[in-house]
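Data deposition worksheet. Section B asks for the primary sequence of the deposited chain exactly as it was used as input, without tags or linkers unless they were present during the calculation. Section C holds the resulting structure in token form. Section D is free text for depositor observations; keep each observation to a single sentence. Incomplete worksheets are returned to the depositor.
Section A, Depositor: J.P.
Section B:
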Amino acid sequence: MRYLMYSMGILLAGLAAKAQPPIDRSKVMEYLQEQQYDQMIAYLQPLADGSEPKDLSLLAYAYQQSGKLNDAAGIYEHILLLDSNAVPARQSLAGIRMQQKQYRQALLHYQHLLPLRPRNASLWKQLSTAAYALGQADSGFAWLSRAYQLDPTDGWVAEALAEQWIAKKDYEIADAIIYAYLQTDSLNTAILELAAKTAYSLKRYARAVDIGAQLRQQQVVSPASFSYITAACYQLKRYRDCIAIYDYLKQNQVGTENITYYAALACTELKEFKKSNALLQDCIAMAKSDMLETYYHCASLNYESLRQYKPALACLDSSYYLSHRILRLYSMGRIYEANLDNTAVATKYYKRFLQLYKNDGPGEKDIYEYLKGRLKGSVQ
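Section C:
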């Protein structure tokens, strides 16, 4: 009703347009340049011809830029009553409906524009965005693919389409899209971050490491991306690089459990056991995942390498408490027997291992057969 009354007001103003002076385009341009939209509205309202789309478009634009979206939408709808193929008005109205989260209306407007602009890549992109917002994933993907075909140099489209292929776990296609885009814009950080993920997923570790160097050069701090990069470094046994990435993120006041863990593993490989344990303690403090047990187990290996057997046993005990993996019982027994010369306590752990054995994990069967032979007749 509000829009109808407004439209009628515009039409009445149009009937009296002959008595009104024409719109001074230079004055309107001045308002636009100074972004004085409220003044522009006040100036145009009494002068806009209700039957002239150009005048109405200026007024609607001023309303839109001043944040008065409902008023702008009402004028655009009136323009479409005058000319249903008024492309700028329909495009603007669709954009307003997207802002207002009225996605179905936006989609209908974009679809109306398709026959008028079938090769407009931006329109296909907007269609896709509206479809995804409505949960129409199949249509969204098809329209996004069409937008990419028409303009593969659009970074937003390339990124969005690559992400869709990654979600489908087709990393080859995603990587091809990313690699093609980087040939024209090698500094696009969003694309580079995706490239780190696809490179690692395809086991192209050296490329992932190179991407990491580029991201660091651009001062990009992205824990998610560097998780893939540090994992690639570890796969290539570039342990110092794992630690360097950890240090780089820490300097930027960003720390993640995963990257800290890889830095700890790297320190272990470099025989820097104390530093590794310090990092593992940080992991334990941060842990909100099922990796917590693994951190305790890794710490126990470091302590054992340092011949600090009591802390090693304490970590193994925590590891077993969290995981109930019976291999941890065997490890405790082995430390007591081989390093603390306490066969009696070791035997208790071995017996407990045999009692709980169910062949649930790798390596358990071989140890079971070994202990069964050693302790034959003594298991209760």
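Section D:
The chain is about 75% helix and 0% strand.
The mean pLDDT is 91.
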